[in-house]
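Hi C.,

You asked whether I'd gotten around to modeling the 213-residue construct. I have! Everything is below, sequence then structure, no commentary in between.
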Amino acid sequence: MKRNTLCALRFTLSVYPSLIFVAYRCGTMNTANTAPAFEADVAFDCPGNYQAATPSTLRCSKCNRPLAVKDAQRTPTGYVCPYYVKARVATFYTAGPKQYILAALVAFVLGIGIGFVLQFVGRIGFFALILTIFVGPAAGGLVAEAIRRVNGKDRGQYVWLVAAIAMVIGAAYFTVLPALFALLAGSPGFIFALIPIVGLAIAVTTLVARLRF
């Protein structure tokens, strides 16, 4: 009797792991069969009325129009026409003329103050260049943050360019013009007059980096 019981127990222990494995496989198969299928991508009508210049069997993977090889742009999902790329990029930028004007005004006004500060720093003497290296990035970051706060969530593809130009124009009176006059007059202090320009260049670089990327 005991021998039969031990045999039955051994048989159960040997078969039990196999039963668990079979049950697990059946459960995963049922889950895979009942998982909701993903919907196919909605067809996208590429704007711009793109037409291939030469006959081509290659087609845009989004709008299915004939696509010239020279115009094809490779993506992880296939080749697309240039208008699709432009349309997709444009969806990330919502800034209008108002945001560009505000960015220009903010950069111009703050640029005047930054130019004055850089001119003052340039007159300190030997440590002017060292201070300019720290003042320039801080000034550019200040302008970029001010523009972001004014425009809110609206982003423009070329806001960085408008802001950089406006900032240079605003600061030019205190940075560029003194260096230009010193150069024309042949003043020996021309080298020191370039320090504010270096600071302005650093500030503009920081501004572009903060707004563009």
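If it helps when you're writing up: Strands lie at 73-75, 78-80.

Thanks,
B.
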